[in-house]
Design brief:
By secondary structure, this protein is α+β, with helices and mostly antiparallel strands. It is about 20% helix and about 40% strand. It folds into 2 domains: about 1-135 and about 310-315, Diaminopimelate Epimerase, Chain A, domain 1 (Roll), CATH 3.10.310; about 140-305, Diaminopimelate Epimerase, Chain A, domain 1 (Roll), CATH 3.10.310. Strands 1-2-3-4-5-6-7-16 form an 8-stranded mixed barrel, surrounded by 4 helices. The radius of gyration is 19 Å and the shape is globular. The chain starts with a strand and ends in a 15-residue tail after the last strand.
């Protein structure tokens, strides 16, 4: 078996776009295909994401046929541990790839790409210079100031917000760390422990899609608001111990929804967010959305830029004992 990919990165965060060679799905809807990928083809995810073809920080996007009538293409997001419901950095990469590959015809002054994600339809706009802006699915603050008991720091106060995935969000100085000076291992340890503690202490429910009802990761922030051109740094830890090298598109969406709930940002105000690589994403609330269950929701526009780094063809030889990939625990 041979799988063909396009390699991209968004602010240093990889996106391995799988464009050919994946077996045909029998499922009709995108969520059906997501479940089928888990049940029938997970060895391919592991083989592409993990060593020797990938690494623990790899991220993937499988292009599939959409079932949404307005979508240009659909995607299944994947990482070292499983399958995401939404990914902003990969959306930025996919939108640019869709235009530059000719999958979506280029138009002026910008090209609209409609991407069906597991969490819903996402509309992206690609400028001639390759920069991308996309509108999120409805985002909302889920809970504020909830306690997650941890073994290391005792009771930790977190907010949980949804930007296509659910995140536990807190200022890193509340646990005595610093995003610029603390070792990354300490940041990762904290993100993993807090995610596990919050998931245990705070039930997660999505009113319309049970498949989306889980805590995806932790976002540790510098407690800034990204106003006045001063980017707020954050680091997202997800899928156990995976580090997002980008500012995290769905995380920016969740942070904007959280700041709106706390009346720290108004509609049409742009805010900037920075990752551990120094890459920037912008965030802007563009309009209200229909309520999600009992919660007020809004649409956030996220902006950033992705770059193509290469193309690959990966073999899966039947006699290769490591064909399904491996990881080395640290």
């Amino acid at each position: 078996m041979i799988l063909s990919t396009v390699e991209m990165h968004t602010g240093g965060e990889p996106t391995r776009i799988i464009v050919d060679g994946w077996p045909v799905f029998s499922g009709k809807t995108l969520l059906d295909k997501r479940r089928e990928a888990k049940e029938r083809f997970d060895q391919l995810r592991r083989g592409l994401m993990l060593e020797p073809r990938g690494h623990d920080g790899m991220y993937g996007a499988l292009v599939v046929e959409p079932d949404h009538p307005d979508a240009d293409l659909a995607v299944l997001f994947m990482h070292n541990e499983g399958y995401s419901t939404m990914c902003g950095h990969a959306t930025i990469a996919l939108a640019r790839w869709a235009v530059e590959s000719g999958r979506v015809a280029r138009t002026e002054p910008e090209t609209i790409v409609r991407l069906q994600c597991p969490c819903g339809l996402v509309t992206a706009r690609v400028a001639p210079d390759g920069t991308v802006r996309f509108e999120s699915v409805p985002a909302f603050a889920y809970v504020l100031d909830r306690i997650a008991p941890t073994a290391t720091w005792g009771p930790v106060t977190v907010d949980i917000a949804y930007g296509g995935a659910f995140y536990a969000i807190l200022a890193v100085d509340s646990i005595g760390l610093d995003l610029r000076t603390s070792p990354m291992r300490a940041i990762v340890d904290a993100g993993e422990e807090i995610a596990l503690a919050a998931a245990k202490a705070i039930p997660i429910e999505h009113p319309s899609e049970p498949d989306l009802a889980f805590l995806y990761g932790t976002i540790l922030t510098d407690d800034g608001d990204g106003a006045n051109g001063q980017a707020s740094r954050n680091v997202c830890i997800f899928a156990g111990r995976q580090i997002d090298r980008s500012p995290t598109g769905s995380g920016v969406t969740a942070r904007m929804a959280l700041m709106a709930a706390r009346r720290q940002v108004r509609s049409d105000e742009e805010r900037l967010f920075e990752s551990c690589t120094g890459a920037h994403f912008s965030g802007r609330i563009v309009r209200d959305a229909p309520a999600v269950g009992p919660r007020k929701a809004l649409i956030v526009e996220v902006g950033g830029q992705a770059h193509i780094t290469g193309e690959s063809r990966f073999r899966f030889d039947a006699d290769d004992p490591l064909r399904e990939g491996f990881t080395l625990s640290t």
